[in-house]
Amino acid sequence: MLRFISFGSGSSGNCYYLSTATDGLIIDIGVGIRTLKKQFREYGISLNSVRHIFVTHDHADHIKSVGSFSHDYHVPVYATRLVHQGIDHNYCVQRKVAEDMKMVMETNKPVQVGEFLVRSFPVPHDASENVGYEIQAEGVTFVIITDMGSVTEDIKEAISRANYLVIEANHDIEMLKNGPYPEYLKKRILSGSGHLSNTDCGHALAENITEGLRHVWLCHLSEENNHPELARKTVETILRSYGIIPGKDFNLEVLRRKTPTGIYELI
Q1: CA separation (Å) from 17 to 14, 105, 168, 181?
Q2: Which of 34, 219, 233, 253 would suit a FRET pair with 260, their CA atoms being 20 to 30 Å apart?
Q3: For the chain, which residues score pLDDT lower than 70?
Q4: Which residues are in the Metallo-beta-lactamase domain (predicted)?
Q5: Number of separate helices (H) and strands (E) present in the chain
Q6: How many other C-beta atoms are found inside a 10 Å radius of the C-beta of residue 48?
Q7: pLDDT (tens digit, 9 = 90+) per residue, 92-132?
């Protein structure tokens, strides 16, 4: 049985854990290494269960502790060539990933890593490169798509294949436009290489999900320009306008920025 935990979701740090009974992986490690160790202990999970690290992109809130974790537990790091280069050049990453721990992935080319079949796909964002991941194990398809400025055909396809989906609902458009951010930052977030709004997330789901979808988690919410209940209600309202009923057709939840979730069993 697959298990899923979010240890952080947002600009303060992102980290997602997926495991089988005998294998485990982490997607992004943008939280502090000491915090992560403490949280794993509290869940009764050994850090040695993590045998693979996957990175979406090279922004600090996704890679802060990647090198340290890889070094301390001798875990290989999978990312595209450009993302690996971005990690090397990011001053926020104090310990870089060792050369022999760098595993280069190509987008849309699945790789078998332990018990997981992993496919990365391009996601538009203003990083050196950014990808989402479609992960298959034990008959389940888990998809994560975060930090995306627009919804592409690759993203639509990934949504349609998901049984379990983590997807960005970063901001409420009006809160962002009327909020304290400088104009250049507002334009960046609203651009096609910025972040996905609650409204766009709702439409992306409504137009692309299938009957195989069982659970959706909204991720990477802005602290200044969003609120968990607002994100959920906005997405739910759009889904209902398409005749899709969260709670009946699938579960819909919001991931907290700094609070770990419980352990979800993906069956």
Answers
A1: 10, 19, 17, 32
A2: 233
A3: none
A4: 12-195
A5: 9, 14
A6: 11
A7: 999 999 999 999 999 999 999 999 999 999 999 999 999 99
Cα–Cα distance measured from residue 97 to residue 70, given in angstroms and rounded to the nearest whole number = 7
**What are the boundaries of each domain within the chain?**
3-265
DSSP secondary structure string for all residues of 167-208: EE--B-HHHHHTSSS-HHHHHHHHSTTS--BHHHHHHHHHHH
Residue 220 neighbours by CB under 8 Å, 6+ apart: 9, 10, 11, 14, 146, 147, 168, 169, 170, 195, 255
CATH topology of domain 3-265: Metallo-beta-lactamase; Chain A (3.60.15)
Looking at every residue in the chain, the average pLDDT score rounds to 97
- Checking DSSP bridges between strand 77-79 and strand 52-54, what pairing results, if any? parallel
Sign of the Cα torsion 116, 122, 123, 129 reads: positive
pTM for this entry = 0.98
